[in-house]
From TrEMBL:
SUPFAM superfamilies: FMN-binding split barrel. It comes from the Bacteria. InterPro entries: Split_barrel_FMN-bd (IPR012349), Stress-Dev_Protein (IPR052917), YdaG_split_barrel_FMN-bd (IPR038725). Residues 8-147 form the General stress protein FMN-binding split barrel domain. This is Pyridoxamine 5'-phosphate oxidase-like FMN-binding protein. Coiled coil: none annotated. It comes from Cytobacillus firmus DS1. PANTHER family: PROTEIN BLI-3. It holds the Pfam family Pyrid_ox_like.
Amino acid sequence: MSNMINQEEIETLRELIKDIDTAMLTTVTEEGLVSRPMKTQEVEFDGDLWFFTKKETAKYEEILHDQDVNVSYAGKSYVSVRGKAEIVEDLEKKKALWSKAYEEIMQTSYDDPNVVLIKVKAEAAEYWETGNFTKKAAFLFKRMTGQNSKSTDINETVEMNK
């Protein structure tokens, strides 16, 4: 059984998170876990999630110390994405993802050297929803991962890569 993320799994997760404007990013600190709201990037999910931050924030330091993160979404569905975060300072990528909303939120521009991107490479996702779409996706994920499709779990976990 392959644990690599495939295009159908990416499409399902994209569908589940596409209209959710704010995600909760959880990082690891010396004291434990810390979560904070982050504006979701308006880009097509391809297995990576992107967020803007500044270098003088706690989350920046936390990611430099420990790359394990979780990103959760709550809307018409509930999605929890586990992954590895990295800090990206690529000016062209910042320019491509920047919007007027960030200018207002961060009180600066994309070319500010203090502005960085957090790239989260998704490793696994878990989701909850009772709608027909998610039931269909749950069946699909179980079939792809070789799990019994007759299970009545209320949530699904998908290992995306290892």
